[in-house]
Design goal:
alpha+beta, four-stranded antiparallel β-sheet, globular
Length: about 140
């Protein structure tokens, strides 16, 4: 079975719901085959500050559950992931915690392993940092 590389992404939103355009963009990326959605949890904090967690077994909205790679129970996300997500949101806000599989990288990962190599580091540079670096280098448009 080929899988990976996998990445956990937490997106925090200043509203109690995720904008439909975010769901659409995520769905389009999954449909393109670039990524697969391996696990998903929605974390919200109500007006009183109580944290609520919904996963596949709690009846996620159809738009999300239709994108999941495999509907069997997943254990990819830890309690620590959920705690981090909950800490990123305030009252009446929501966070999306997703495990995505970078399918575009399958062949590269396979060839690295086949040659006896291994991925020594995988890190993501936040968009804001990339923009700041480009602007520091005098790049004004991308």
């Amino acid at each position: 079975m080929k899988i990976g590389p996998l990445e956990v992404i937490i997106c925090a939103f200043p509203k109690p719901a995720i904008d439909a355009n975010v769901v659409k963009a995520f769905s389009e990326t999954v449909k393109s085959g670039a990524i697969a959605l391996a696990d998903l949890v929605l974390v919200s904090r109500d007006r009183a500050g109580v944290v609520h967690v919904r996963d596949l077994h709690d009846g996620l909205p159809a738009a999300w559950s239709a994108m999941i790679l495999d509907a069997r129970p997943m254990t990819l996300l830890s309690d620590a992931d959920i705690t981090i997500a909950a800490e990123t949101i305030g009252n009446s806000q929501m966070a999306l915690v997703a495990v995505v599989e970078h399918r575009w990288a399958h062949r590269l990962s396979e060839e690295v392993r086949r040659s006896g190599g291994q991925t020594a580091l995988q890190a993501r540079i936040p968009d804001e940092d990339a923009v700041l670096a480009l602007e520091a280098d005098g790049v004004t448009t991308i």
